[in-house]
Write a structure and sequence with these properties.
This protein is of the alpha/beta class. The chain is 38% helix and 14% strand. The radius of gyration is 21 Å and the shape is globular. The structure holds pyridoxal-5'-phosphate (PLP).
Length: 384
Amino acid sequence: DLRQRLATRAVHAGQQPDEPTGAIMTPIYQTATYVQTGLGKHKGFEYARTRNPTRDALERNLAALEGGIHGFAFASGLAATDAVLKLFSAGDHVICGENVYGGTHRLMTQVFQQLGMRFTFVDTRNIAAVTAAVTPVTRMIFVETPSNPMMRLTDLAAVGKVAQERKLHLAVDNTFATPVFQRPLELGADIVIHSTTKYLNGHSDMVGGAVITNRDDVAERLGFLQNAAGAVPGPFDSWLALRGTKTLALRMRQHDANGRCLADWLHGHRAVQRVYYPGLPDHEQYDLACRQMSGFGGMISLELGSAARARTFAEGTKLFALAESLGGVESLVGHPASMTHASVPKAMREAMGLTDGLVRLSVGIEDVDDLREDLDQALAKATR
Ligand SMILES: *Cc1c(COP(=O)(O)O)cnc(C)c1O
């Protein structure tokens, strides 16, 4: 029911009490196949790559959260992006944000480029640059906003207009903002992609992905691709994600409150040279952030000035665990230049401000005073 507000949809959308038992929670249908009562006589379920009731419930729930009609769950965020790229063919051209997730860049340049697709990476903060990159064979614009780890924003309404005028698909990776804070479909996107591994599941205990769309033609092909290639999540991971989304609105509220509080405090800290957080008034796209997002979340990047300081800091936190990934209830710290973005050439990293002195925080939902104290002692070590 799309008239319901998001927190209500998060708990209820796509789920009914289990038909035979009344179980209020969708069971984990741990099965590979379904018995047919006669040739071609079944209850809509034939084989579990094609459909599974636990996955069905997750897909309906995710679609409702994004305000979309069709949802497809995948085995990972990259499997979701892989399926979206397979909507196109050799010779087709895609315009992609230059600061997207490293694995997205790798999939485009090291897999789909070999298969004959073409990609142009542009700074999608600049809409004129996006328009200038459109060619007669361009089929899609792919953006991630806020971007990782520089927290750059793309104006979704503006890029949506370009896509609509040129009849291109607009795909938005909404992993960082989540539907709680940003609704790409309502701003003109055709396709929303998630790594459900991050905030949607929110507990760092599974890997998964999703694609949501309002377009019937896209949905038909995506459903075909999901079954044809088979990169589907198992019933248990689907169930974990479905359990995770129930508390999404609640968790995001706390990530956002903690994120704002710590970004503000770090901004005034003498050991920190620069803070990248869309909710800070000195973020160069703060006005756009306020217009496009209803919250800023828990992702913060910090410039500490040198690789040595970044290392001491990242190794010196006690509550913030040093690990890849983001979006879980627990706080994490990472060093993009040597971890998530190590495959990006150094010159390209530095050009976008991704220096060896940059660290990235995924702020969890712990007590913010404990988090602040932990960052304070690690900053003291880093600048001693
Ligand atoms: C993690 C991530 C992905 C990839 O998702 P996986 O589940 O790790 O495959 C894609 N986009 C963003 C923004 C991510 O953070």
